[in-house]
Amino acid sequence: MAATRLELNLMRLLSRCEALAAERRDPEEWRLEKYVAALEGMLQELKQQASKPAPELLNEYSRKVDFLKGLLEAEKLTSSTEKALANQFLAPGRTPTTAKERTPATKTVHLQTKARCTGKMRSELLGTVADFILPLCSCRGLAGEEKQSAVELDAVLQHHQDMQEKLAEEMLSLARSLKNNTLAAQNVIKQDNQTLSHSLRMADQNFEKLKDESDRLEQHAKKSVNWLLWLMLIVVCFIFISMILFIRIFPKLK
């Protein structure tokens, strides 16, 4: 089923929100919150339409919108620990929003947010002088989580880079194949043009020869008619003279 205009607008706005969420935003930035509110309204309107998408696709849209809402609510928390805990329970999307994405953008945002929250917690814990042992232990645990998140993010980025390189190689191979096909087509067209030109020249030569033969035949026909006419006149004259001589030689009997 083809996507409706409302669904296309929702996908565009969702992609824009995911891009904004991936950026390091100013605390006073208000656009993402307004966009997410607009997304909620569009999603509710899409669910009420008669030609609405498949339930799996609607659930994926709802999952991504809920993730963005939870991300905004987590950013409003004051404690880094609370932010990290809130981000831990967020569920990113499972499928890419646009065809250009290889990995869901919300998953990348989730990994980046977890890494930032873990880094802030690590900085706060390392800056605490009192109760040294507990922050140190927590720091090690969080450092391991940060390292795991960083590894996951590196894996995602490496996957993106590998996919881009593979796509570039495929495009290069396609370009080479297209070039070869174009050259082959040009050669075939060139040969066809030469054959057509030769055929046209032969047709012109045959037409000229046919015209010459037609003129000769016409002249020959005219000559034949003239000789026949003269021959008939001579025969008629001969018969006329013979009759006169016959009458003179053999007079009429009385």
From TrEMBL:
InterPro entries: Vesicle_transport_protein_Use1
CDD domains according to UniProt: SNARE_USE1
One of the GO biological process terms: protein transport
Membrane topology listed for this record: Single-pass type IV membrane protein
Record field: transmembrane: 227-250
UniProt subcellular location: Endoplasmic reticulum membrane
A Pfam family reported for this protein in Swiss-Prot or TrEMBL: Use1
One cellular-component annotation, GO: endoplasmic reticulum membrane
Source species, domain of life: Eukaryota
Coiled coil: 193-220
Any one GO molecular-function label of the UniProt entry: SNAP receptor activity
Main location: endoplasmic reticulum
Keywords: Coiled coil, Endoplasmic reticulum, ER-Golgi transport, Membrane, Protein transport, Transmembrane, Transmembrane helix, Transport
Family as reported in the entry's similarity comment: Belongs to the USE1 family.
Protein name in UniProt: Vesicle transport protein USE1
Gene: Use1
